[in-house]
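Worked example 3 (structure in, sequence out).
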């Protein structure tokens, strides 16, 4: 019998059948080398979107993606190597204070991050607002910075998981992003290529996240923890709230400033809570005493670690002491409350979209961003406010930019007579040791 064609395989998945290990390897290799065209892979990803992949198919699919390019070899590194990945949200700058805190506790952190798209921000865009800071390295440079400082804050190199680069761009234009098997294989193939001892996932749930429902977020977390187990990497996941922006700053340079606040021992409560919880979890997976987290901050060692990695990556470390080195907006304009009462909604997606429209994010891959513009959220869920109190301060280049987003931004808040039920920030935990 002749080998099945790509069309046959699409039909198998379309009709709900399983793909064999060889079928999956053939599909991923062929798509990566260009012998399988976009239109056939688009049909395949839509079939997977609708029919799913079972646990065996998913493990092979992830493995084929992982081996579509280079894989890091960090076996020479002294000490444990642990990373964190967030599924993304609005105001989510956690990686920036978290990575130096954990590295200051003696754990290697090869933090590989992404760029913002749509309403969600990207850690690389934020980091690149630090004067001189670069995030693009080949595997040798990446490993050298990690070996010297115990920390590297970089983008995914061209040769790491090339299958994901192509597949993600395809999914982005074919309405197949929000599929649990496709998201989990995309994330986990990149993380497994980092040669980690442990991985902590921050799976966001709420209006500003990929997953708006807790059940879906839990399924995504369980699926990724399962892929980790199949590859002998300990993975644990926190499911955390993303109904409202995390912290107060939404933008790029302003999010670096807020991250510096956390490292200096301050910062907004929600951001501090998530950062410290994830830091303790990373230390736990690395078998390092979790109580070291607070000391890393109060002793100043975490801030020093950030300054060290900024220098190693070509940036100006003086930014850790002088925020005026960061780009600033031309003007700040206050949006005021028009009602008295309690904030019952402070919608992450609406605020994220408004920040993107100001230029802090990109509508399409490859768009430029404006590092200086952004939004500072003054009124958050449960706050009691009066008419005229600030809801947000909007940093812009000019007033007409503000006028374009003013009405939409104002619609992010609901103010009512009664306070909302308090919601916990850490919604759930998934992972065999938790
Ligand atoms: N982040 C990724 O890296 N991949 C996805 O599919 C979704 C979010």
């Amino acid at each position: 019998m002749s080998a099945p064609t790509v069309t046959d395989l699409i039909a198998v998945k379309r009709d709900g059948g399983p793909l064999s290990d060889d079928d999956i390897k053939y599909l991923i290799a062929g798509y990566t080398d260009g012998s399988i065209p976009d239109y056939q892979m688009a049909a395949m990803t839509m079939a997977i979107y609708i029919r799913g992949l079972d646990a065996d198919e998913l493990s092979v699919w992830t493995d084929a993606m992982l081996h579509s390019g280079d894989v890091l070899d960090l076996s020479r590194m002294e000490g444990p190597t642990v990373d964190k990945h967030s599924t993304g949200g609005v105001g989510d700058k956690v990686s920036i204070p978290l990575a130096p805190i954990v590295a200051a506790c003696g754990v290697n952190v090869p933090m590989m991050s992404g760029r913002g798209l749509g309403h969600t921000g990207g850690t690389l865009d934020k980091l690149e607002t630090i004067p001189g800071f670069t995030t693009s390295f080949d595997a040798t440079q990446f490993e050298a910075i990690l070996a010297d400082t115990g920390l590297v804050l970089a983008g995914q190199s061209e040769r790491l998981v090339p299958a994901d680069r192509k597949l993600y761009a395809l999914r982005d234009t074919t309405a197949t992003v929000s599929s649990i098997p496709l998201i989990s294989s995309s994330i986990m193939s990149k993380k497994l290529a980092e040669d980690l001892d442990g991985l902590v996932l921050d799976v966001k749930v709420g209006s500003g996240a990929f997953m708006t429902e807790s059940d879906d977020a839990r399924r995504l977390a369980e699926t990724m923890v399962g892929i980790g187990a199949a590859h002998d990497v300990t993975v644990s996941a926190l499911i955390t709230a993303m109904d409202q922006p995390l912290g107060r700053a939404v933008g790029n340079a302003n999010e670096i400033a807020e991250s510096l606040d956390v490292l200096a021992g301050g910062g907004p409560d929600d951001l501090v809570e998530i950062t410290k919880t994830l830091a303790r979890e990373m230390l736990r997976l690395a078998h390092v005493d979790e109580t070291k987290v607070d000391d890393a901050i109060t002793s100043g060692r975490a801030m020093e670690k950030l300054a060290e990695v900024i220098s190693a990556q070509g940036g100006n470390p003086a930014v850790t002491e002088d925020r005026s080195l960061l780009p600033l907006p031309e003007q700040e304009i206050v949006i005021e409350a028009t009602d008295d009462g309690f904030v019952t909604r402070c919608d992450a997606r609406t605020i994220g979209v408004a920040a993107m429209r100001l230029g802090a994010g990109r509508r399409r891959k490859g768009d430029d961003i404006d590092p200086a513009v952004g939004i500072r959220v003054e009124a958050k869920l449960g706050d009691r406010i009066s008419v005229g109190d600030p809801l947000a301060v909007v940093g812009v280049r000019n007033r007409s930019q503000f006028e374009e987003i003013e009405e939409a931004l104002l619609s992010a808040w609901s103010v009512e007579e009664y306070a909302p039920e308090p919601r916990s920030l850490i919604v759930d935990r998934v992972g065999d040791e938790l």
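Notes: The mean pLDDT is 95. Residues 328-416 form a domain with the Aldehyde Oxidoreductase; domain 3 fold (CATH 3.90.1170.30).
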